[in-house]
Amino acid sequence: MTNAIASVSLSGTLEDKIRAAAAAGFDEIEIFDVDFLASPLSARETRTLIGDLGLTCSLYQPFRDLEGMPDPLRARAFDRLRQKFDVMAELGCDRLLLCSNCSPLASDDRPRIVADLREVGEIAADRGLLVGYEALAWATHVWDHRVAWDIVREVDHPHFGLLLDSFHSLARAVPNESIREIDPAKIVYVQLADAPVLDMNRLYWSRHFRNLPGQGGFDVEGYVTELTRIGYTGPLSLEIFNDRFRSTSAALVARDGVRSLNALRDAAARNLGQPTRMPGKAEILGVEFVEFAVAPEDRTALEQTIAAMGFACAGRHRSKQVTLWRCGTTNLVLNFADDGFARAYRLTHGTAICAIGLVVRNSAAAIRRAEALGGKTEVTDIPSMPAIRGVGGSLVYVLDHGSAEAIWASEFDLVPVEPAGEGAIEGFDHLAVAVHNDEFLSWQLYWRALFDVQVQEAQDVIDPNGLVVSQAIQNASGTFRLTMNATDARDALSSRFLSQTFGAGFQHLAFHAGDLPALARAVRARGLGCLPIPANYQDDARARFGLSPAESATLRELDILVDEDARGNRYRQFYSRAFNKSFFFEFVERSGYEGYGAPNAPIRLAAQSRYRVEPLP
Ligand SMILES: O=C(O)c1ccc(O)c(O)c1
Ligand SMILES: [Mg+2]
Q1: Cα dihedral 344, 347, 349, 353 sign
Q2: Across the strands, what pairs with 399?
Q3: Less crowded by CB within 10 Å, the N or C end of the chain?
């Protein structure tokens, strides 16, 4: 099995695309017709470049609108076919993709279609080439791979076979089990793409929104599992038409492409009980700590803030300028070191969350999987706590279950702290990251390929200055929750965060509590500045959720927002003011509610925008 990518998936000139594919470690590249037509390189020169970089050209594509055409278009299509075959001979490429006909002139007469395609097979046989027939989801007649497979069987020619593309099959909701009916020897090639589940014209959906397997909502894993089950061992090729990929780094998309394919092969092998080359997705058990890199001038203010939230200093690091703050079993680490990683982090991002510590089922296996999938891993000062590079250059430490207390005790001079009282923070609820739009899919793939997490449907959130897309990623038990936000709107809060903090990072940290009003009262009494929520919102919430006068008065007094899911599970939340106009804290109470209060996000963002710093004229 080889890994391939279509040139259309990558940005730049044909030469850029070939170089990026080779550098990322692909075995093969598909040349997209227009990429070749637009290139000043001849077929021979292209072949030499591909070969010199250690790649092969596994497919030329697409060839369109051939079968069932009336004359003279039919004769012209066959002339064009011969010309493409000439180019392929020069390119050293032996497979052509033929799309099912999309012309309104295409005949649905099966014997004619079969006769035309058999003739294609004959011409291909003369030249020693193979043609793969692909059912496009929007074709005039043949838009289902089951129909294309029937036709391939009827054509019954050794130089004519089937080409499968997961986008077309899954956009048409063709069941993956239908692949079991296909003879793997007749599959000429397989293209893979994922996509967000959208209700959209299929051509537009395909040409603009495809993404890498592991970035969308299709069951591409099931697709590849069925292909593996029937014994298909040919190339798996990424064919991603995506507006964002066209304008982003080819190197990034190519690297993510290899990660995506290797994670997919691993998942398929696991589903079939076959041997695998890497440990499975790391199971996250919980968040052990969140670490801040703290600039000296921010130290007092940050300590006052977290003290107001109910944290107390529980220890000093034995050798570094690092302190541990605790509230019950919730740990914050403040790193003031003037060397090493935390210093480098704060010099670029300012005082910020620079690392998180995740408890996983097996930390060594988590590191091996990250490395197998191209992740950057770090050996840290604490050998039992290795790390994986995360967004914005942050670190994701991985710890084994039960190892944390020993690490705290050996690294820190611990001092006893008062047990957390009534209405205290009881744990981390979620982390929110802001990323550039260009990196949004890349970081989604990172979490989904390395860790055993699921995604929720992406939410559109209205910021007063533009639309923000928010994607929740979490584990099955809800002990790890992350939301990822990105926008093209230059002035939205998450964009301002990105420009002020020099790139992607953790923008807010949410804690959960069992008694949110009690927590809200306690943090206010200790001086935490909270985000005011308008009375208009509270008037609506009272009526909408049928709140009692007393409950409504409490939410109003404490600036608490509320949401309810379809089953009546409640979510209550309030926010701190931002620290240094940068990151902020959220406090939530949830019972059976799985979301993040998305309907309240516009209220919160509008409240936050009232505190924004106007740019200098
Ligand atoms: O959008 C298209 O026309 C197109 C072309 C070639 C393909 O392989 C495909 O899946 C779609
Ligand atoms: Mg295709």
Answers
A1: positive
A2: 359
A3: C
The ipTM of this complex is 0.99
Report the alpha-carbon distance of residue 148 to residue 162 in Å, rounded: 7
Ligand 2 centre from 191 Cα, in Å? 6
Residue nearest to atom 8 of ligand 1 (CA): 62
Q: Is 439 flagged in the annotation as binding?
A: no
Stretch (H or E) spanning 468:
strand 466-474
**Between the CA of residue 533 and those of 440, 595, 601, what are the distances in Å?**
30, 20, 11
Q: What is the DSSP string of 202-213?
A: HHHHHHHH-B-T
Looking at residue 530, the DSSP 8-state letter turns out to be: B
Instruction: Tokens for 138, please give them.
Output: 């929007």
Ligand nearest to the CA of 165: 2
Please give the residue that has the higher pLDDT: either 144 or 418. Answer: 144
Question: 473: which strand partners?
Answer: 455, 482
Residue 526, both tokens = 């200790």
Summarised one tens digit per residue, pLDDT across range 34-76 is: 999 999 999 999 999 999 999 999 999 999 999 999 999 999 9
* Domains of the chain, first to last: 3-271 (3.20.20.150), 284-609 (3.10.180.10)
Of 222, 214, 174, residue with least CA distance to 196:
214
For 522, other C-beta atoms within 10 Å of its C-beta total 21
Give the torsion sign (CA, 269, 275, 279, 283).
Answer: positive
Q: Which residue has the higher pLDDT, 20 or 487?
A: 20
Cβ neighbors of 454 (< 8 A, separation 6 or more) are: 473, 474, 475, 476
Q: Which residues surround ligand 2, an ion (CB under 5 A)?
A: 165, 191, 239
Classify 428 as helix, strand or coil.
strand
